[in-house]
Amino acid sequence: MSFPRFNLKGKMLKPSTVSGYFRATSQVVSNQLNVSNNAAILPKKKVAHIPFQGTSALSLAKTLPNANLSVSCGPAASLQVRWAHTDITVPNFDNYRRNSTKDPTRKASETEDTRKNFTYLLAGGLGAASVYGTKNIVTYFISSMSASADVLALAKIEVKLGDIPEGKSVTFKWRGKPLFIRHRTADEIAAERAVPVESLRDPQHDNDRIQKPEWLVVLGVCTHLGCVPIANSGDFGGYYCPCHGSHYDASGRIRKGPAPLNLEVPYYEFAAEDTLVVG
Amino acid sequence: MSIGKTIYNSIFKRSSTFTLAFIASAFIFERTLDSACDTIFDNINKGKLWKDIKDNYTQ
User: Fold this and answer.
1) Which DSSP string corresponds to A211-253?
2) pLDDT at A64 over 80
3) Is beta strand A237-241 parallel, antiparallel or unpaired with respect to A246-249?
4) One Pfam family this chain carries (chain B) (predicted)?
5) I want to staple B22 with a disulfide (CB 3.0 to 4.6 A). Which of A62, A127, A261, B34 is the partner?
6) Quick check: A61 contacting B, CB < 8 Å?
7) Is B34 part of the contact surface with chain A (CB cutoff 8 Å)?
8) Active site residue A244
9) What is the count of structural domains for chain A?
10) To probe the interface with B, which of A106, A109, A117 has the most B CB atoms within 10 Å?
């Protein structure tokens, strides 16, 4: 180590000689010991001058010039300053490499496909997971808009047709609206079939409005302003709206008055011979 | 190695087939997960479900 730059080569270690190294002290007080000249002769030390070899980062940094740099320039002097970068070993990145690329003698193109496949598989897995999650979120929000089970349960009604006598119109409540089911007589059926379609305001033949000729199923909402018509009244023997005087016939078609359209026919089907399901 | 090359060239190389592949795998994953969860639920609740006790109440 190069710490003690001064060495005491074969010199006597006496107070008189030591005082030269401690100039800060103003006065050397001699002790009371009687020191003879031959009392402490140190053996001559062998000093080997080993050239400086810095290996640690600190000692390397100490060799760098850090002050009073002067660069001499000329034909004999080179401008090049050689820094300590040629003897630093390249760091080992094996911990960050894939196993297939650790061998430096293998070609990278040989393992290219497997490495790409691995990366794309991860990306594809992420894509599949996000598609799955997105689908569930979208389904959740869309299904919140659909009708709930209690609403769906009230969406259909079942009517026993045997309880309705011929020539009578019965009113049911269906989806909050009145529903007319009319058991038509043979005379009414024949009369409605004979009506010329061209003479109607909303031209529709009787056959287009019914499934079985005896049964007329219409919504009891006047197409004018939404009043509930009265059954078996009016000029045409069908329905009559008391609000503004619209007359409907026994097929629910508008014949007289302000209403523009025929009474609406809902979707219905005959579940059995005498059972009607509306909705 | 050749299998990896085939997979890469047929699926991962084009974005269209890549997208199709992961949408299809999401579909398969969902069906598999749902049926697996249903099976686990049925096994845990065996004997309590309507389909297990239906024969006691219907002719």
Assistant:
1) SSTTEEEEE---TTT-PPPEET-STTEEEEETTTTEEEETTS-
2) no
3) antiparallel
4) UCR_UQCRX_QCR9
5) A127
6) no
7) no
8) yes
9) 2
10) A117
Q: Answer whether B4 touches A (CB < 8 Å).
A: yes
Task: Tell me: do A113 and A224 sit in the same domain.
Answer: no
Rounded Cα gap, residues B30 and B37, in angstroms? 11
Among A121, A146, A171, the domain-final residue is A146
Q: Which amino acid is at A136?
A: N
Amino acid at the residue A22: F
Indicate whether A65 belongs to any domain. Answer: no
Say whether B25 and A135 touch across the interface (CB within 8 A). Answer: no
The CATH code of the domain at B3-56 is: 1.20.5.260
Provide the residue range defining the domain that includes A93.
89-146
Domain positions in chain B are 3-56
Helix (H, G, I), strand (E, B) or coil at A275: strand
ipTM confidence score: 0.83
Q: Are residues A171 and A124 in the same domain?
A: no
pTM over 0.80: no
A157 Cβ partners below 8 Å, 6+ apart?
A172, A174, A179, A277, A278, A279
**pLDDT (tens digit, 9 = 90+) per residue, A12-25?**
556 565 555 555 55
Residue-wise over B3-35: b if at least 16 C-beta within 10 A, else e? ebeebbeebbeeeeebeebbbebbeebeeeeee
